[in-house]
Design a protein that fits this description.
By secondary structure, this protein is an alpha+beta fold. It is built from 1 helix and 2 strands; from the N terminus they run H-E-E. About 25% of the residues lie in helices and about 10% in strands. Strands 1-2 form a two-stranded antiparallel sheet.
């Protein structure tokens, strides 16, 4: 789970996600997902982000 000690690395991860999105041609938009805790469907227990893009993102997600 994200904790106060992760403050700096989370900022780096979000900025890096933006850079990767640009490299992947997702300038028109993308979604960053962080699954946090069992109720958030976290299955890998280290901090990481998921970068989603390349198609229209609907709400609610699915």
């Amino acid at each position: 789970m994200a904790e106060e000690r992760h403050f700096e690395i989370l900022g780096c991860l979000l900025y890096t996600a933006k850079l990767v999105a640009k490299l992947e041609g997702l300038e028109d938009g993308f979604r960053v997902v962080i699954n946090d805790g069992p109720q958030g469907c976290q299955s890998v227990y280290h901090i990481h982000v998921h970068l989603l893009g390349g198609r229209q993102m609907n709400w609610p997600p699915g």
